[in-house]
Amino acid sequence: MARRARESPSIGPSWQFLQCFGERAPGEEVQEADIISAVEFDKDGTHLATGDHGGRVVLFDAVEREQMEVEPDERPSASNRVASDFEYRYTTEFQSHEPEFDYLKSLEIEEKINKVRWCPASNGAQFLLSTNDKTIKLWKVYEKRVDQMGDFNVRGKNGENESSNGALEIAQAEKVLREAYKRNGQRVVSRLSPGLKIPKVVSSIVVPAARCRRLYANGHAYHINSLSLNSDCETFMSADDLRINLWHLDRANQSFNIVDIKPDNMEDLTEVITSSDFHPTHCNIFAYSSSKGCLRLGDMRDSALCDRNAKVFEEQELECTKSFFSEIITSISYISFSADGRYILSRDYMTVKVWDVNMESSPVATFQVHEPLQGKLCDLYESDAIFDKFDCTSSSSGQHVATGTYGHCFRVFDLSGDKHQLLEASKLPFRPTAAAEEPSPSLTRGIFSRSSSGVDVSSSPYEQMDTTQKLLHLAWHPQQQIIAAAASNSLYLYFAP
What we know:
By secondary structure, the chain is mostly beta strands. 7% of the residues lie in helices and 38% in strands. The chain has helices at residues 2-7, 166-182, 188-191, 326-329, 377-382, and strands at 16-21, 36-41, 47-52, 56-64, 86-95, 100-102, 107-109, 115-122, 125-131, 136-150, 200-216, 226-229, 235-239, 243-248, 251-260, 273-278, 285-290, 295-299, 311-313, 334-337, 343-347, 351-356, 365-368, 392-394, 400-404, 409-414, 421-424, 473-476, 482-487, 490-495. Strands 1-30-29-28 form a 4-stranded antiparallel sheet, with no helix packed on it. It is globular.
């Protein structure tokens, strides 16, 4: 048993490579516009959407995986083993946003897609929201029928006339029709040339198409950092640095301000909003985070402007542990409710924290992600890597949490107390030097840290990780053990049987 534990990176799910879209060749230069900036599954995982820095949205659909034929005496191997019951295939892509210029503020607005959120399907069409720094758009993706016409009265490619004396007969037909119009259309058929053909539909194909249904503009004075669809499937909220607005999907010209932390004097500003998310089942409850590491829960039943928070989740930092970088590394970059709404995940630069909505004093679990980088904060600050914003996500069962890190890697934590896993975004996900032999904290009360465990940082895989190769965005399938991870311009999918 001890030998098996050393061979396996973790006791948790055995993750395997499933698919890759946009894999880079060795030494290939990646264009800035192709870097993926958002990843999102729809509510049942049938559709997958990504957004990139070039303002494009790319869609994938789940299809049944083709079974490979195996001889009776052939043992299963990596080449013939069926990995999953389905796989994803590229469907379509469209240009969601274009670069703009704000003449009033002399500010360039990038086309980069910050967030993508799926909306409920209707009449066989899919709907999704996408946003850049300023403008939110509602897109309709549907199947469009394209008819191919044939039997034209023109000369064919092989040199033969599709109708004899085509040009002459067309001119004669136009003259006949003009004369017939004057006589109320009598005897038209008898005077038309027998060689003249009426064009007809010879074939039809169905192609995916996208159309912008609504444009939600002028709702934010600052950069939009998050979108969240309400459980009522009729409203959604968008958040910028100082305000959170509530929109109705059918009303693009009106929004309601539900959170406003802008002070009368901007010099008194001490924190900004960093992320927000609606409760998965209660349409009146939402959560948002701040740059101070504070997590707040709001209830729209209390008042129209939720300036009084229903709950505040904040972990008090000891004075002896504070440093110049404390405010930067404790700033929450992303929050998300668990599927059942019982827990809230929050991601800051160093850790992933799991909060119970019924306990505000401290998180029920804290997972160290970048603890080996604690002694390199000065270098990270000079390279601006300390300001990177990583996403986090949880499984449908709520037993596992995943988040990105450097070296095009991501970590999967098991809340039941098993060892965590470090996977690389490649066809061979497990790194040989993965620091996955250290136990993860169990889901119990209190703060967990390995700072006193004597971990040798010099032997950590972070020594070899390139901070320019970062995995910021990933998503967990809502029903299956499948993770979609975006590494630069490549999208990797992994599954656990």
